[in-house]
Specification:
With 775 residues, this protein is an alpha/beta fold. A 7-stranded parallel β-sheet has the order 10-11-9-12-13-8-14, sandwiched between helices. The protein has a 6-stranded parallel β-sheet with strand order 15-25-24-16-23-22, sandwiched between helices. The chain has a 5-stranded antiparallel β-sheet with strand order 2-1-4-3-5. Helix 20 packs antiparallel against helix 21 and helix 22 packs across helix 23.
Length: 775
């Protein structure tokens, strides 16, 4: 959140009023008064047709056409049917010209509330994308397609037929069917009626032909997910720090105004219990809360804790089936849910009476959407909370420096939880300098001598172990020892990763795969080497060294099946698994009291990436995974393996000292004008021909320079230059980077430079406001 607080919460919906496309010419001023008043629907299209268009609403559809519903309209010279979102309806002078008419209303109810429509318009303006594209992101495809429902025929007995039922002369079977249907309190499908009357559907069809049964079609849910009951749980007693935090949040709730509270609590300090008791206060006056968590792996645990206290809880995340997502969305919209728990997109949950938004682990990069619209859930939550006048609570042991700086400046209220719940101490952290480590018995591996001994001790005492390695696969690269050639993806400028179990060399960006080579593809020398550590190699090493202890790997490769996260974490929680290893999905938020040891296999995996946030991410990851231990009565230890034990981020993480890290890092950011001391935007141009893509990037840079000069904004423009990953999925990539302390003028210059920008064929460009991904 590099842009100033006021720019996010008080900025007008549009920087410049967009030109509205009309399908008729404007009338002369003297003709306007005499023109006929017609009902006009303003619509936006999801793709292909930018901005807004006007259509006349025929009298037959006047009641059905409403803001927030989709309509089918003729588009272009061919008048092809296209679906669009209705964003405005008003009577307006036609100017004596003829508008094209709305052909059909797609939705039987509005899919967007006025508040969500305002939010979507703000997102389109702020993130410089099309309004219709934002609307498609806000309303899930499963809701638009009504997944889990079918168009069914429903039968009923007309009132005039039911009144003379006793007088009808019908065959016995038909009369039996008619009586059964008349006695039903609700309409029945033909199948239901046949089953109830112990008949086939033939007599039912005959009765419909005679006009004795009337039919209508209605879309009904055919799949109703069943949730297992869960035992209720009483409130936990809060310590003094937790009670102080709860009081601060309740004051914000009772004020009836928007405010943002940063709950800075060390790992294990009991932030979730504070959230729960604050939400109980919200629910007590008939409102609902949204709780966002960063990882899918956290969603089941968080949801279980909330269900044990509230009962009426819905979950929204990407591993739901379409039918499940639609079912949850409907219950939320009807007001049947008190708490919505979910990942990034849950910020768009259609709660009718929003009372509070909570972002747990607010620093997490997974809250940023990687594709258009490239929104950050934290900024969208801030905007939605401000618009609906409700508090926003941001919680983290390692807040982003942007959030921390705002709290220090007084824009957010800072509430500290400096101690762990139940007064348990933070775990001791030991660093292992991998530059000087010697593997036991001369064997090279992922686990150092110190970590191996610590694991043996923890397991022998009945504890559990978590091992973090933020690299998938078996070997991170394949290299020829003779010529030094690294086997790379032909479509991307990155090395292929060896996945030994699947017997493939795989690109983690485009999914290109090939059989693992037995010789060098360049010089054909034998004896090619597989180097680097991935989670698969770590798993093999653990199984060899600890054959008597069950282990489990959690990464993208193993957690693809529906419900896999829940099953894996349940097995670890119940003690069936003693050693849990994986990528960053196991590093945050998980609460397992029996974990007495955490090992970080390589703390440097992200430390030297070409990204100004590299040190911050390394610090956060170490602190977060260290917090997974020492949560029970038995205490815990952390061992961090690193080649850079003296790096400031590593030293601060080992001491659990966030203030020291921020004190060191913030002056560096300020001297370079990086967030939180300036607004930032990144533009990426990509195309199949390197020279053409580069030429267009230069053209874009020139337009930006002109727009910046016209806006008189003091800005820094870097590039164009090849992106750190210069080729991706067959496209050459060039990037530009914009920085300025004046967010408003920088945004205005971006709008002016990119409006009407037409790239050459096969060349694409994107703009990313507040970028987190710099590769």
């Amino acid at each position: 959140m590099a842009w100033p607080y006021e720019f996010l919460t008080q900025r007008p919906y549009s920087v410049t009023k967009p030109e509205q496309h009309r399908l008729f010419d404007e009338p002369a001023p003297w003709e306007a008064d005499e023109a006929e008043q017609v009902l006009v629907a303003t619509v936006v299209f999801p793709t292909g047709a930018p901005r807004e268009y006007d259509y006349a609403v025929p009298a037959a559809l006047a009641e059905a056409v409403q803001i927030g519903r989709r309509v089918r309209v003729p588009l272009g010279r061919s008048d092809r049917a296209a679906i669009a979102w209705c964003v405005g309806v008003e009577f307006r002078s036609s100017g004596g010209r003829r508008l094209k008419e709305v052909r059909e209303v797609v939705d039987t109810r509005g899919l967007l509330s006025p508040a969500m429509l305002r939010l979507s318009r703000w997102m389109a303006d702020y993130y410089l994308c099309e309004w219709g594209q934002v609307l498609e992101a806000i309303v899930p495809a499963s809701v638009r397609d009504q997944s889990g429902t079918r168009l069914m025929t429903l039968l009923a007995v007309p009132t005039k037929v039911a009144a003379r039922l006793a007088e009808l002369k019908l065959p016995k079977k038909q009369l039996q069917i008619l009586r059964a249907l008349a006695a039903s309190p609700e309409p029945l499908t033909p199948t239901q009626l046949a089953h109830l009357a112990h008949s086939t559907t033939g007599p039912i069809t005959t009765l419909r032909r005679k006009g004795l049964i009337e039919a209508h079609t209605e879309r009904l849910r055919y799949l109703e997910p069943v949730e297992a009951p869960i035992a209720a749980e009483a409130d936990h007693t809060l310590n003094a720090d937790q009670q102080r935090a709860l009081t601060a949040i309740r004051e914000a709730l009772d004020s009836g105004l928007h405010s943002t509270v940063l709950l800075h609590g060390i790992t294990g300090s009991g932030k979730t219990e504070v959230y729960i008791q604050a939400i109980q206060h919200v629910v007590s006056f008939g409102r609902q809360a949204i709780v966002l968590v960063p990882e899918i792996s956290l969603t089941p645990q968080t949801r279980q804790r909330f269900r044990a206290r509230f009962g009426r809880v819905a979950v929204l995340h990407s591993h739901l089936s379409d039918a499940e997502r639609h079912w949850h969305w409907e219950r939320i919209a009807r007001g049947e849910i008190d708490v919505v728990v979910g990942a990034r997109s849950a910020i768009f949950a259609p709660v009718p009476q929003l009372g509070l938004i909570v972002l747990d682990e607010e620093h997490e990069s997974s809250f940023k959407q990687a594709t258009a619209p490239r929104y950050h859930a934290r900024d969208v939550a801030l905007r939605r909370a401000a618009d609906e006048r409700v508090p926003l609570v941001l919680g983290s042991a390692t807040p982003s420096l942007e959030t921390w700086q705002r709290a220090c400046q007084g824009e957010y209220r800072l509430v500290e939880l400096p101690g762990r719940a139940l007064e348990r101490p933070l775990p001791d952290v030991l660093t292992v300098d991998l530059r000087h480590d010697t593997a036991p018995a001369g064997r090279a591996g992922a686990i150092s001598r110190q970590l191996l001994m610590a694991m043996q001790g923890a397991l022998n005492e009945g504890g559990q172990v978590i091992l973090l390695l933020n690299r998938r696969g078996f070997s991170t690269h394949i290299q020829c020892p003779a010529c030094g050639e690294v086997v790379r993806c032909p479509h991307c400028a990155i090395a292929l990763t060896h996945h030994r179990h699947a017997r493939v060399a795989l690109c983690h960006y485009c999914d290109y795969e090939m059989p693992p080579p037995m010789e060098c593809p360049a010089c054909h020398a034998p004896g090619i080497l597989y180097r680097g550590l991935g989670t698969q190699r770590l798993e093999d090493e653990v199984r060899v060294r600890f054959p008597d202890h069950a282990c489990l790997r959690m990464d993208t490769d193993t957690m693809q099946e529906h419900g896999s996260h829940e099953r894996a974490l349940a097995a670890f929680r119940e003690g069936q698994v003693k050693i849990l290893m994986g990528t960053q999905m196991i590093a945050k938020g998980l609460d397992f009291p029996n974990v007495t040891l955490v090992g970080v296999i390589n703390a440097d995996t992200a430390l030297h990436l070409p990204d100004f946030r590299a040190a911050e991410r390394t610090f956060q990851l170490i602190v977060q995974v260290a917090g997974r231990t020492g949560r029970g009565d038995r205490g815990g230890r952390v061992i961090v393996q690193t080649f850079n034990p003296d790096h400031p981020a590593v030293r601060a993480a080992v001491r659990h000292d966030y203030a020291a890290f921020a004190e060191h890092e913030l002056p560096i950011r300020e001297s370079l004008g990086y967030p939180p001391f300036g607004a930032m935007a990144r533009l990426v141009v990509r195309g199949p021909v390197e020279a053409v893509a580069n030429q267009f990037a230069e053209h874009l840079a020139e337009r930006l320079r002109q727009a910046l000069a016209a806006s008189e904004v003091d800005a820094r423009l870097l590039g164009p230059a090849p992106a750190p990953i210069a080729k991706l999925r067959g496209k050459y990539r060039f990037q530009l980077q914009l920085q300025s302390a004046d967010a408003g003028r920088l945004h205005q210059a971006l709008v002016e430079a990119t409006t009407g920008l037409k790239p050459p064929d096969h060349v694409q460009w994107i703009v990313d406001i507040d970028p987190l991904e710099m590769l």
